[in-house]
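=== RUN LOG ===
request id: a7f3
mode: sequence -> structure
chains: 1
length: 596
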Amino acid sequence: MIPRSEYPRPQFVRSDWLCLNGEWQFEIDQGDSGLERGLLQRDLDSHIVVPFAPESKLSGIENLDYLEAVWYRRTVTIPSQWAEQRVLLHFQAVDYDATVWVDDVEVGRHRGGFSPFTCDITAAATPGSEVTITVRARDSHLPPQPRGKQARLFGPEGAIYVRTTGIWQTVWLEPVPMVALRRPRITPDVTNSVFRLEQPLSNNAPGFRLKAVLKDENGEVVTAECAADVELSPRIDLPIPADRRRLWSTEDPHLYDIEISLIDGEGHVVDTVTSYAGLRSIAIDGKAIKINGKPVFQRLVLDQGYYPDGIMTAPSDEDLISDIELSMAAGFNGARLHQKVFEERFLYHADRLGYLVWGEFGDWGCSHMGRPDDEHQRPGADYITQWLEVLERDYSHPSIIGWCPLNETWQRITDRITMLDDVTQGMYLAAKAMDTTRPVLDTSGYSHRVPFADVYDSHDYTQDPDTFAARHAGLANDDPYINGHDEDKSISWSVPYQGQPYFVSEFGGIWWNPDVKEGEDSWGYGNRPTSIEEFYDRFEKLCWILLDDVNMFGYCYTQLTDIYQEQNGIYKYDRSQKFDMDRIRNAQIKPAAIER
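=== RESULT ===
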């Protein structure tokens, strides 16, 4: 049985493809000398189950040591029916620095552990023939490298977990025509009741046309066509009649299907894909963020997407669905997808279940982006490059309601422009350039460096509700709690607050594990409650302080599950229950002040 065999790209689907998950040859190359030692020309010394990283149990390797480089090798037969087409080799994610060969000829390189890349292997992929694919993944534990919550030290500690090396998402082959459709950008326009479709093409040919059909559960809604021979990215508007208009929301996550076809001058369909879209708007009204013109308090949970057996890779598609359903059962209506770019199928399930998410980049790994004593650990242009790849991949998902490129950037403002200033500005501007429809938070917590950014926030793990309430009372006077301020505000880590929508994007983290054994590593924020009743009381009071603040548009509670030694989740690491979920849910479901 092929693991994780479901289609990996649900918002851009072709019918013909070949999943390459399963058993591959594998070898650890601890000295990163494998190319010199001939690993490209010989069989490797063990086997691994792709797409699970070698640190995971599901991979069959379960090696938690530093793995400076790893090699993969597999022979694949190219389907005979793929004649006269280009053959693309897709990697959904490889951590961190990948080189790919086909029959010992290099076909691609990519740096970045969270974003997908593609190699064109047409020259070697004769239909009916066998090809040998070899992949080397370098993953140094030394900085600088965006790695999210992966450990730089040997083992996990505090809020940092184990490493993920090499292939950790699906590998697959796809045939495409010589003139082909590329990934579209689908923009909902609620005001004008229309989807705006931008459809990039691989190249143009005389007489070609683009056709798009919008459908709902009752069949065709509208069909539109345009010329596809004079522009590399033709645009089509798909207007929705009033009697077929249905907005996407948390209460009714309605999705329209879209069929996109490329037609040649003789009327033959050259390429066709299916996609989907949700008609919803996002707006800022004072301190409120509105969805479809209505304030919706964002009851978010911090979701880090770790699994006991798969680490950053969900063991099954059902596990992705279950995590969303568990969150919703606890009363949350969305999540900060924290320090990890989640796989596309998670976003697909969020789209269809009406689950709000903030897209985030896994930026940690460079000394939290700029401590002045760590000059050699500063981030570079690769942060912005990889962030742009993420934005391009995820632009069209209706469940994404905001972008957050950075997390807990720690550096005081001085009279000098720093690398942190450049990277924060660059990643913010990249998001705004790629997407004008969603708000962007320049960094979650600590060093806000973009004046007049769309959103402002803080992290506050204060466990005493009275102190917590006092800290956030100033928001009513445009004087919110800001991480890093001295009491007299003579030293600041952030540009001033300018009246933007504000939320506490991390709070809670209440440490609770009644099953912890003496001597076992267990960690959470602040003082542990002495009883489960004390936990419920603290959880309710912290949530209600934010829910009852008319100037607060949302919150994000830490966190969905325990992860290794960090035991402050709503659920245990294996997703079993820790609490009475009715009580957790009831603490959150009352109408928020901003909704009232």
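=== NOTES ===
The longest helix spans residues 419-434.
The chain has a mean pLDDT of 94.
=== END ===
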